[in-house]
Every structure is written in structure tokens, then in C-alpha cells.
Amino acid sequence: MGRWSSGGAVLGICHVAGMLDLVALPVWVGTFIAFYGLSPAQAGATVTSFLAGIVIASLVTARLLTRLDPRTVVVAGFVVAAAAFGYLASRPVEAVPFAMLPVIHAIAGLAAGAALSMTHGTIGRTENPHRLFGLANVALAVFSVGFFAVVPALVHSVSPRLLFAVFAGSMSLAAVAASTRFPRALGAGASGSASSQAVPRPAWLIIAAVICLAFNQSLVFSFLERIGDHKGFSHADVTTVLVAVGLVNLVPGALAALTQRRLSPVAVGIAGPLMQAVLALVIVNATGFAAFAAFAIPYVSVVIFTHTFLFGLLSQIDQSRRAVAATPAMMMIGSAAGPAVAGAIVETSGYGGLSYTAVIISGLAIVLMLTFRARTAASSQILRSA
């Protein structure tokens, strides 16, 4: 299943449905502010409730990875998540009180989180997790191109409820695909003895670094549409940037798969946060559209590329595969905090505070990766593959 087989394609579809936030954050938050009348803090907190649900579900599901039937959990999870978003898509904006939004989002997050955790756990137990995860991110990029090319315009011109219809449709498709072709067989790294092992201590440093990456990504990207609006750029210009984000996102997953044996995961794990800090500083503080666009377009790609290498590294050093099964948790712990923290920062200190927060978190991620390198220096096996 290291190749893009039918089972790999289903895993890719499920990865896309479960990782919608990586694509939709700016439109999601912007829709709540522009059409539902929410404040930045309320909009961020509502999206955070979905991401927090994913965190909780993933933490629980990852511990039960070898005891649950992956296909059943994935299908049931996406069915429930689709129903939750379908409800929002069917209700007029004025008929949905603010108090209901976090509850519905939390239910959807719990369900999608269980499904995504089983998906990532299955990817981690294949013959080449790095390659398959990279290809799954290519599928996510293909989705993002279509999403940004169509959805923002329809949300503004037709109805904001279309956003939730897209969410519901994506998760329904994943449920159907998983019910027919979700792979049951486990790959070479799935032995019972390995699955009972504890997660190695160095793996927790990688996990913390991934959380930092995800936090920075959601901190800035969730308010990208609002940042552009605040700077006076037109909706058409900002939408063009988002479409370009989707197009550029086609590159990092495939590039990460192709360079698997040529780049050090540890070096990539250090360079990624550094790039995030530089990009965030320019995105938030740029005064001209050209600089804003040039640095905003590759922002998500940095996370995709870096995380693919760290996912592969975790698969190597943690034979239990529970760490990679908890990928949704580590991603969403960062992602969940990002929108809520960003909303609070914007309301208290303006958009400029976002970039300085991103620099601090990037510094922490770099320290974590340097610590990992130092602690694993005695292991020639890890160093040769890292």
C-alpha cells in the first residue's frame, strides 16, 4: 500500500475529509464574521470547538488503535460529522443561534476526529508511511484548488450555508469510499508486539514540534482573509491568493515523497518553523498586495512539506504506531488553539500581534527539534535515516 492503490486512494479521500480545516480555515472564520455576525473571538472559538473535538477523539482512538475495527470507526465517524454539518447547511443563518454553533461543531469534530485518527493510524502501518502520507497531502491540495476556486465566491454570492454543504458532502463521500474499499490488512510495521510498545520519549519532542507547526499555521491562516480585508485588498484579490494557495499546495506532498531519501527529517523539521516565522512576519506586516500575496501563498505548503517528513520520522522511531495514529490530535491541538488565540490577539492588540506570536512559537519548535537531534545522537540507526 505504499503505492497509490485503491486502498491508498480511499485513505487519501478520508485524509482530505478529516483535514478540511487545513484548507478551509480562512473562509470558515471569515464566513462567521461576515455573515453570522460573530466577533473575531467568537468565530475563532467556534472553529476551535470543532478542532478540540478532533483532539479529544483522536487521543482516545489512538490508544485503542489495535482494538477497534478501522473501517467501522471511519464510516460511522464521517456519517455523524456529515449529518452535523448537513444540519447547518439546511438552516437559515438567522435561525442558528450562536450558542448552537460550538455544540454542533464539537459533535462534528468528535466524529471526524475518530475517523481521521483511524485513517492516519492505518497509513502509519503501511510499508511506506512517508510516501503514502505525502500522496494523501497531494489529494488534499487538489481538493483545496477546487475549494478556493469555487466556494468563497459562492459563499459571498449565493449563501454562506454552502460552506457547510461542502463540508457535509466531503465527509459523506469519505464515508461511502471507506465503506467499500477501506483497507483492512495491515502493512509490514504492524506486528502485535510492536503495537504494545510504549511511545519512545524522543517521539514526544517530534509531537510537540508538530503541535507548534499546526498552531502557527492556524494562527495566521485562519485570519488570512480578514488580514487581507483589513489591509484594504479587494475580495477578488484575496480570493485569488487563496486559489494560488491551493495550486501551490499541489507541490509539497509530492515533493516530500520524492525527496524522502535525500533530505534529513530533522533538518526539515528545523527549517520548517524558521520559514513559518519569516512568512508570518511579512504576511501580517506587508503594506503592499504583492508582498502579502508572495508570502501568503506558500504558507500552508511549509506545514505540509515539514509534517510529511516528521510523520515519516515518527513512523520509524515509534513501532507501536500510536504516535502516528494520534496525528489528528497533535495537529488539532495546535490548530484548535490557533483560531481562538488569534481572535483574542486581534481584539486586544490588532493583527500585528499574530506575527510576533508566530515567531515565538517557531522558536520553540526549533528548540524541540534541536533537542531531539541531541538526544538521538547516540543512535546511529535514527541518525542515518533522519
UniProtKB/TrEMBL annotation:
InterPro entries with a match to the protein in the record: MFS, MFS_trans_sf
Keyword annotations of the record:
Membrane, Transmembrane, Transmembrane helix
Q: Show the coiled coil region(s).
A: none
Bilayer-crossing regions:
12-37, 43-65, 72-89, 95-120, 132-155, 161-182, 203-224, 236-258, 265-284, 290-311, 323-345, 351-372
Q: Which domain of life is it from?
A: Bacteria
**UniProt keyword Membrane present:** yes
Entry protein name? MFS transporter
**Whose protein is this, by species?**
Bradyrhizobium aeschynomenes
